[in-house]
Fold this sequence. Notes:
It is built from nine helices and five strands. It is an alpha/beta fold and 172 residues long. It has helices at 20-31, 38-46, 50-57, 59-73, 87-90, 106-112, 115-119, 127-144, 155-169; strands spanning 9-13, 34-37, 79-82, 97-103, 147-150. A five-stranded parallel β-sheet has the order 2-3-1-4-5, sandwiched between helices. Residues 16-17, 39, 50, 84-86, 121-123 line the site of shikimate-3-phosphate (S3P).
Amino acid sequence: MKPKPVYDNIVLIGFMGSGKTSVGKALKRQLYKKFVDVDTIIETEENASVSDIFQNKGEEYFRSLEQKCIHRLMQNTGQIISTGGGLPIYNSLSKKSLIIYINADFDVILKRLPAKERDKRPLLQNESKARALFEQRKHIYEEQANFSVDANQSIPTFIHVILDYILDQRVL
Ligand code: S3P
Protein backbone atom coordinates (compact mmCIF):
# COMPACT_ATOMS: atom_id res chain seq x y z
CA MET A 1 0.00 0.00 0.00
CA LYS A 2 1.28 3.47 -0.87
CA PRO A 3 2.04 5.50 2.31
CA LYS A 4 -0.21 8.52 2.91
CA PRO A 5 1.51 11.77 1.87
CA VAL A 6 2.60 14.05 4.71
CA TYR A 7 0.99 17.17 3.20
CA ASP A 8 -2.21 17.76 1.22
CA ASN A 9 -0.86 20.41 -1.16
CA ILE A 10 2.21 22.46 -2.00
CA VAL A 11 1.69 26.22 -1.71
CA LEU A 12 4.19 28.63 -3.28
CA ILE A 13 4.47 32.02 -1.61
CA GLY A 14 6.68 35.07 -2.11
CA PHE A 15 6.80 38.64 -3.31
CA MET A 16 5.42 39.69 -6.70
CA GLY A 17 7.64 38.58 -9.54
CA SER A 18 9.76 36.20 -7.46
CA GLY A 19 9.06 33.32 -9.87
CA LYS A 20 6.18 31.44 -8.16
CA THR A 21 4.31 30.76 -11.39
CA SER A 22 7.41 29.56 -13.28
CA VAL A 23 8.31 27.30 -10.35
CA GLY A 24 4.76 25.96 -10.13
CA LYS A 25 4.65 25.10 -13.83
CA ALA A 26 8.02 23.33 -13.63
CA LEU A 27 6.93 21.35 -10.56
CA LYS A 28 3.73 20.34 -12.32
CA ARG A 29 5.78 18.88 -15.19
CA GLN A 30 8.20 17.09 -12.88
CA LEU A 31 5.72 15.78 -10.33
CA TYR A 32 2.71 15.17 -12.61
CA LYS A 33 0.43 17.13 -10.29
CA LYS A 34 -2.27 19.66 -10.93
CA PHE A 35 -1.02 23.27 -10.98
CA VAL A 36 -3.34 26.11 -10.02
CA ASP A 37 -2.64 29.83 -9.83
CA VAL A 38 -4.91 31.88 -7.55
CA ASP A 39 -4.63 35.10 -9.61
CA THR A 40 -5.49 33.23 -12.82
CA ILE A 41 -8.54 31.61 -11.20
CA ILE A 42 -9.73 35.02 -9.99
CA GLU A 43 -9.15 36.63 -13.39
CA THR A 44 -11.08 33.85 -15.13
CA GLU A 45 -13.97 33.94 -12.68
CA GLU A 46 -14.22 37.73 -12.71
CA ASN A 47 -13.51 37.95 -16.43
CA ALA A 48 -11.13 40.82 -15.64
CA SER A 49 -7.41 41.30 -15.08
CA VAL A 50 -6.03 41.79 -11.55
CA SER A 51 -5.19 45.39 -12.48
CA ASP A 52 -8.76 46.04 -13.64
CA ILE A 53 -10.18 44.49 -10.48
CA PHE A 54 -7.94 46.76 -8.36
CA GLN A 55 -8.89 49.78 -10.41
CA ASN A 56 -12.64 49.21 -10.69
CA LYS A 57 -13.52 47.39 -7.49
CA GLY A 58 -10.61 48.14 -5.16
CA GLU A 59 -7.97 46.13 -3.31
CA GLU A 60 -10.33 45.08 -0.51
CA TYR A 61 -12.65 43.39 -2.99
CA PHE A 62 -9.66 41.61 -4.56
CA ARG A 63 -8.53 40.39 -1.11
CA SER A 64 -11.95 38.93 -0.42
CA LEU A 65 -11.82 37.01 -3.72
CA GLU A 66 -8.35 35.73 -2.83
CA GLN A 67 -9.56 34.54 0.55
CA LYS A 68 -12.54 32.67 -0.90
CA CYS A 69 -10.37 31.13 -3.61
CA ILE A 70 -7.66 29.78 -1.29
CA HIS A 71 -10.29 28.47 1.12
CA ARG A 72 -11.94 26.56 -1.72
CA LEU A 73 -8.65 25.18 -3.05
CA MET A 74 -7.74 23.89 0.41
CA GLN A 75 -10.71 21.51 0.24
CA ASN A 76 -8.78 19.52 -2.42
CA THR A 77 -5.48 17.66 -2.28
CA GLY A 78 -2.53 16.88 -4.54
CA GLN A 79 -2.22 20.38 -6.03
CA ILE A 80 0.62 22.80 -6.55
CA ILE A 81 -0.84 26.21 -5.73
CA SER A 82 0.78 29.48 -6.73
CA THR A 83 -0.43 32.46 -4.68
CA GLY A 84 -0.37 36.22 -5.24
CA GLY A 85 2.22 38.07 -3.15
CA GLY A 86 -0.38 39.44 -0.74
CA LEU A 87 -2.28 36.23 -0.08
CA PRO A 88 -0.16 34.93 2.84
CA ILE A 89 -0.16 38.43 4.33
CA TYR A 90 -3.96 38.46 4.66
CA ASN A 91 -4.62 34.74 5.21
CA SER A 92 -2.99 32.15 7.42
CA LEU A 93 -2.30 29.10 5.32
CA SER A 94 -3.29 25.57 6.24
CA LYS A 95 -0.79 23.56 8.29
CA LYS A 96 -1.74 20.64 6.07
CA SER A 97 0.11 22.26 3.16
CA LEU A 98 3.82 22.35 2.49
CA ILE A 99 4.48 26.07 2.16
CA ILE A 100 7.51 27.02 0.10
CA TYR A 101 8.81 30.60 0.16
CA ILE A 102 10.41 31.68 -3.12
CA ASN A 103 12.87 33.98 -1.41
CA ALA A 104 14.37 36.49 -3.83
CA ASP A 105 15.82 39.93 -3.01
CA PHE A 106 13.90 42.98 -4.16
CA ASP A 107 16.62 44.08 -6.59
CA VAL A 108 16.79 40.63 -8.16
CA ILE A 109 13.02 40.68 -8.66
CA LEU A 110 13.16 44.09 -10.33
CA LYS A 111 15.92 42.96 -12.68
CA ARG A 112 14.10 39.76 -13.55
CA LEU A 113 10.71 41.29 -14.33
CA PRO A 114 10.16 42.59 -17.85
CA ALA A 115 8.29 45.95 -18.07
CA LYS A 116 5.20 44.15 -19.40
CA GLU A 117 5.03 42.02 -16.25
CA ARG A 118 5.58 45.04 -14.01
CA ASP A 119 2.69 46.83 -15.68
CA LYS A 120 0.32 44.02 -14.70
CA ARG A 121 0.99 44.58 -10.99
CA PRO A 122 -0.71 47.61 -9.43
CA LEU A 123 1.37 47.44 -6.24
CA LEU A 124 4.64 47.44 -8.18
CA GLN A 125 4.07 50.73 -10.00
CA ASN A 126 5.86 52.91 -7.47
CA GLU A 127 9.33 51.48 -6.80
CA SER A 128 9.94 52.99 -3.38
CA LYS A 129 6.49 51.98 -2.11
CA ALA A 130 7.00 48.47 -3.48
CA ARG A 131 10.40 48.23 -1.76
CA ALA A 132 8.82 49.25 1.56
CA LEU A 133 6.07 46.65 1.06
CA PHE A 134 8.74 44.02 0.41
CA GLU A 135 10.54 44.93 3.65
CA GLN A 136 7.26 44.71 5.61
CA ARG A 137 6.25 41.41 4.12
CA LYS A 138 9.39 39.30 4.01
CA HIS A 139 9.19 38.36 7.72
CA ILE A 140 5.61 37.18 7.24
CA TYR A 141 6.62 34.97 4.30
CA GLU A 142 9.41 33.50 6.44
CA GLU A 143 7.03 32.84 9.33
CA GLN A 144 4.42 31.13 7.16
CA ALA A 145 6.84 28.93 5.23
CA ASN A 146 8.01 25.40 6.01
CA PHE A 147 10.88 25.83 3.57
CA SER A 148 12.54 28.92 2.15
CA VAL A 149 14.53 28.56 -1.06
CA ASP A 150 17.20 31.04 -2.12
CA ALA A 151 15.62 32.34 -5.31
CA ASN A 152 18.40 34.77 -6.19
CA GLN A 153 19.97 32.06 -8.34
CA SER A 154 18.60 31.28 -11.80
CA ILE A 155 15.12 29.73 -11.80
CA PRO A 156 16.25 26.31 -13.21
CA THR A 157 18.92 26.10 -10.49
CA PHE A 158 16.67 26.69 -7.52
CA ILE A 159 13.88 24.51 -8.93
CA HIS A 160 16.25 21.59 -8.41
CA VAL A 161 16.70 22.56 -4.76
CA ILE A 162 12.92 22.55 -4.31
CA LEU A 163 12.48 19.25 -6.12
CA ASP A 164 15.13 17.54 -3.98
CA TYR A 165 13.41 18.83 -0.86
CA ILE A 166 9.95 17.67 -1.98
CA LEU A 167 11.15 14.23 -3.03
CA ASP A 168 12.93 13.81 0.32
CA GLN A 169 9.81 14.78 2.23
CA ARG A 170 7.26 12.49 0.55
CA VAL A 171 5.01 15.52 0.19
CA LEU A 172 2.25 14.66 -2.24
C1 S3P B 1 -0.17 41.20 -5.22
C2 S3P B 1 0.50 40.29 -6.00
C3 S3P B 1 0.04 39.89 -7.35
C4 S3P B 1 -1.49 40.02 -7.43
C5 S3P B 1 -1.90 41.41 -7.03
C6 S3P B 1 -1.48 41.78 -5.62
C7 S3P B 1 0.41 41.59 -3.91
O1 S3P B 1 0.42 38.54 -7.64
O2 S3P B 1 -2.10 39.07 -6.60
O3 S3P B 1 -1.36 42.31 -7.97
O4 S3P B 1 -0.30 42.13 -3.05
O5 S3P B 1 1.61 41.29 -3.70
P1 S3P B 1 1.95 38.09 -7.98
O6 S3P B 1 2.63 37.86 -6.67
O7 S3P B 1 1.78 36.84 -8.76
O8 S3P B 1 2.55 39.19 -8.75
